[in-house]
Amino acid sequence: MLEKSLGLMFFLKKPKNYDGGAMYVYLKVTVDGVPKDLSVKRSWEPSRWNGKANRASGNKEDAKTLNEYLDVLQNKAYDARKHLIDRGKVVTSIAIIELLSGVNERKWTLLSLFDSHNRDLKKLIGKGVAGGTYTNFNTSYKHTQKFIKKFYKVEDINIRSLDLEFIKKLYNWYRGDQGLNHNSALKNIANMKKIVLDCVDNGWLISDPFAKFEMTRDEVDTIYLDKEELQRIISKEFDNERLSKVRDLFVFCCFTGLSFIDVKQLKRSEVTLTHTNELRIYKNRQKTGTAAVIPLLPIALLVLNKYKDDDACLAKDMLLPVLSNQKYNSYLKEIAGTCHVNKELTSKMARNSFATTVTLANNVPMETISKMMGHKSLRQTQHYAKVLAIKVTEDMDTLKKRLVKKKFIPEQQIVIERRSDPLAS
User: Does the reported pTM lie above 0.70?
Assistant: First the structure.
């Protein structure tokens, strides 16, 4: 690309039906013999034009002004070639003209790029992209659209107008006008940041306007059921069939770590028998597409057996009778009250309880939990280890017993230096 020749020449061009007077000033950009013309939006008298110098002739103020403008435009053409080379783009006369005229810049507006990203994302649903991911990005798009219209009184904004002030205003609007908490505000901004970083990667933005904006989220407490709370829910007898079904579904999630949507989409074919005659769930998580392998514990098997001949489940090739998410959460509130659990029961809590009370508290290795929960990295699973302070005490008690049993550095071999009490002298 560096070897490509670049020729620049300003000239006068007759307008249509020319019968004398001023002509339009044009710039001819030639790269490797291929020319392309650009109007510089100026006109000039032919009698005052120097064809050899390609500039206005004379020392009058209007001639100096035009020549200064043409000099600036010429430098911009060289800068445009450098811009293309630096970003690994093909240098052509058309590419340089487009940069000079700003034809592409008019397309580089935040909402149009955001919308284009979301439309592409929608096409990938079920092909590595979860429907919830598209919904989240689309919600952030609508928020951003509303913000721009309110604060900037325009339908869209050029990406080169984005700066730190814009990001801070957007954050404050999320927190104040929209009433979102800190983490929710940052999540929406992070979705918009994805679009902005794509612009940086494409060379449309020189730098990241988010660079100095703090994106650290607050640590969120993990809410889960302890053993006693889980026992109360499992052992509760319900006369109401709908509450009984919802309780069974919730318990199944507590002993498999599956999310509500994963259970709703769980097919009979995804529960298979291993060579050791044990039933396991092999399923790709809907949210991330990550494979999860879950051996079925006895309680989970009991729940499945209860509905193996259920007519509604058989008709829909489902393992469990799953209601809508709205009804499910509503009925969970009733179950919490009936079982005297002073926590808001949610499908997320069931998953948390599997990671903590059911597995981690019972010495299941972190790597195994991560695989069962379908986490992309072990760091996601390690989050649950922070909440089990009691686990630290239990592990240290176990270690103490183990050290005593193995006679690991017997006490009689430990020499403790006794210092004299200064008060006794």
Answer: no
